[in-house]
């Protein structure tokens, strides 16, 4: 069973579920067969959890707020980690509390298992931005990247991506994109116009392979974490389409999704 196509949900509209250990979770996308999933987890202040032993699925995470000790290392704001399937992350402890965005890989995914890949713990704030110019079709976004992890055998890429403000081309139409691999995104800051509406902080999407998406423009700029099902994003381009500035919220979500997920969310007033 494949993971469902979601484009997009503002995670502010997803309810927290309290877990037996006192944590709270927002599950965003799940494959119930393989266990591949994406969720947000909130650890309360003073949490002191035992070593869970070897992981049954690889775990990849980004700290959204707070600070937490994972695998013996204190991970703070926007720190990143990867724990292969079959390895232990040790006890998890947090004095102040912490919120993490978590990606779990499938139970039978060989490319995320110990022996085929390595554990990682990074502070992206210490990494330089790769500002190599993008292809002409998306050059207006003026993108820069920090690659956090490349999976073995061309299996995945996890990276931070920023686009500068005023990322709108002069022309009124531009091509949309198609990839032969999945693509997943969580918006950390900023905004981006899409044909499904205006993506704001906290927005999440998951696109299976061969999904037409875009065009994308950003008046305010953006900062996001992305995952792709290949080491380098491979793109086919469609015929030009109208720019989506002003598009109303029109999400693509699977049947049975809670109605609350489809609420339009504009966030608190800026001033």
From TrEMBL:
Gene3D superfamilies: Jelly Rolls. It comes from the Bacteria. SUPFAM superfamilies: RmlC-like cupins. Residues 8-103, 142-228 form the ChrR-like cupin domain. This is ChrR-like cupin domain-containing protein. The lineage of its organism: Bacteria, Pseudomonadati, Pseudomonadota, Alphaproteobacteria, Sphingomonadales.
């Amino acid at each position: 069973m494949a993971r469902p196509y979601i484009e997009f949900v503002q995670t502010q509209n997803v309810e927290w579920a309290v877990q037996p250990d006192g944590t709270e979770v927002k599950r965003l996308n799940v494959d119930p067969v393989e266990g591949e999933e994406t969720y947000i987890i909130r650890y309360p202040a003073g949490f002191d959890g035992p070593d869970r032993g070897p992981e049954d699925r690889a775990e990849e995470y980004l700290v959204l707020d707070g600070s937490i000790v994972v695998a013996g290392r204190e991970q703070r704001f926007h720190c990143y980690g990867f724990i292969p399937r079959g390895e232990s992350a040790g006890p998890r402890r947090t004095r102040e509390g912490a919120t993490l965005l978590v990606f779990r890989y499938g139970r039978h995914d060989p490319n995320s298992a110990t022996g085929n890949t390595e554990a990682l713990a990074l502070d992206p704030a210490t990494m330089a931005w790769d500002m190599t110019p993008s292809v002409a079709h998306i050059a207006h976004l003026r993108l820069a990247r920090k690659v956090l992890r490349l999976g073995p055998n061309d299996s995945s890429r996890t990276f931070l991506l920023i686009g500068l403000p005023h990322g709108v081309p002069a022309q009124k139409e531009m091509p949309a994109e198609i990839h032969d691999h999945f693509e997943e995104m969580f918006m950390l800051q900023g905004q981006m116009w899409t044909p499904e509406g205006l993506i704001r902080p906290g927005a999440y999407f998951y696109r299976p392979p061969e999904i037409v998406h875009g065009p994308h423009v950003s008046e305010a700029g953006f900062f996001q974490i992305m995952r792709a099902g290949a080491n380098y994003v491979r793109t086919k381009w469609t015929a030009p389409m109208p720019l989506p500035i002003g598009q109303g919220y029109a999400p693509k979500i699977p049947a049975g999704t809670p109605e609350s997920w489809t609420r339009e969310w504009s966030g608190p007033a800026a001033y």
